[in-house]
Write a structure and sequence with these properties.
The model has no long low-confidence stretch (mean pLDDT 78). Helices cover 0% and strands 0% of the residues. The termini are far apart. The protein has no helix or strand. With 60 residues, it is mostly loops.
């Protein structure tokens, strides 16, 4: 990322390690609590790295 002089703030709410599920159509459930409860409306970005397939994201 170019250095444009802007201040960068890490707003990561949670990081989740996803274990291997055992096959292309095998699945596992992972959960994470937020470090600080969110209030109001926010933008959510889910970043997947590696050989992952995301079938569903649920919030409650």
């Amino acid at each position: 990322m170019p250095d444009d002089g802007a201040t960068r703030v890490d707003l990561t709410a949670a990081r989740i390690e996803v274990p291997a599920a055992g096959g292309r159509y095998a699945w596992t459930t992972v959960r994470a609590d937020l470090a600080v409860p969110a209030k109001g409306v926010h933008e959510l970005r889910i970043v997947l790295r590696g050989a992952l397939r995301l079938a569903e994201a649920a919030f409650g």
